[in-house]
Amino acid sequence: MVEFESLLDSRSYFTLVLHSYAKKDSSPGAEQSDQVSVQGLYAEQISGTSFTTPRKLNQRSWLYRIKPSVTHEPFKPRSPSHKRLVSEFNQSNSFATPTQLRWRPLIIRPKMAFCMYCHFCTGGNELQMHLIYHYHDGRYAANKSMENCAYCNADGDFLIVPQKGRLWITTECGKLQVSPGEVVILPQGFRFDISLPDGPSLGYVGEIFGTHFQLPDLGPIGANGLAASRDFLVPTAWYEQGPRPGYTIVQKFGGELFTAAQDFSPFNVVSWHGNYVPYKYDLSKFCPFNTVLTDHADPSVNTVLTAPTEKPGVALLDLVIFPPRWLVAEHTFRPPYYHRNCMSEFMGLIYGSYEAKSEGFLPGGASLHSCMTPHGPDTKTFEATVAQGENAGPFRITDTMAFMFESCLIPRVCPWALESPYLDHNYYQCWIGLRSHFSHEETKCKTNELQDVDGAAAELEGSCA
Fold this sequence. Notes:
The chain is mainly beta. It has two domains: 72-266 and 276-283, Jelly Rolls, CATH 2.60.120.10; 287-432, Jelly Rolls (Sandwich). It has three helices and 28 strands. 38% of the residues are buried. Mean pLDDT is 86; it is low at 1-14 and 127-132. Pathway: Amino-acid degradation; L-phenylalanine degradation; acetoacetate and fumarate from L-phenylalanine: step 4/6. Homogentisate binds at residues 354, 375.
């Protein structure tokens, strides 16, 4: 595994060319694709953007491999099919609901690998400027490593957030070990397999189509803070050689699964160079910003990665985290304020407890607050915060890591998510105990004082006349 100090540039795009090799002199010289290949390797390019995308946005890599990936039998629909994959969300396969939703942690039951027990709870799609933007949110539960097969998502990028159990991910660019507290991006088109060194694994999955993740602009924050480019890790080239009879490629294409057989491993890339690669990030390296006097900072200040749309400042999907940090604001209600948002929020808890939900929102659980649906701290959190009075003093939030997938699209919820035994039908009750603290007498007194001031001002104006 190699760390690159400048994996992302100041504009937050992958522009610098990275280079890794598992065998010396396995990359070509001046040409990308030599007439006579170096060490008998095949040159193969993978493009994450169109060929004519502006240079500062263009994402592509060259892979130098023992056999090209085209060497396989025809794809066939996978049998049995995956019943919980969705291509485009519409009224025939999902539901729109403004109700606040929450799910309890999954329990692993069947012997399932990641590729077959990764399913989505919600998603949205929209046609903008002739580009179709999709996003999906979901969870995965796996207790079986992928054996003699690899998965490829031709639809979009995966963002995987493990909550329990490490993932050992082999990609065409090399291997990545991803632990709870880290996230990994598997870009569109890359083949990978996932092994489970710790046994069963649980976590969350986001998928985007039509754009790629990048670092958010820092604006007034300046040059430093939030997620630093140097902390993103990419794999070192690694390859396996030799026959693999009956090897299967499982391809997600148009929301369906297809399989193709080949007689070799797809992880036969001896060297690679480019700027379109899988990568991971340790959330503990995030440098949070917060208010140091009054008022509450918006959650956008905790954005790790963003997948932008054509509209500036509006994201198809943001990855936002709520890490350990100090709360020092004075005269300010410190937990997240009650609000309605034009963005939709799918939240998960990796470990610890979430500051706005002291009970019920458990590690491995999830919640959905859709566009303009009100939400905020539960009753217990609100009452405990108000009881501290004006002089709460500095307080450090520790041993917690929550995250949020935030999207500009209105989500539709899959039927299996609404019918799930993990759905918390009593979620709404966490706010039912909120009572009125309004004092009519105090307000009336203040109103009279204002009237007296207005009367004095009118009298003074009359004397001046």
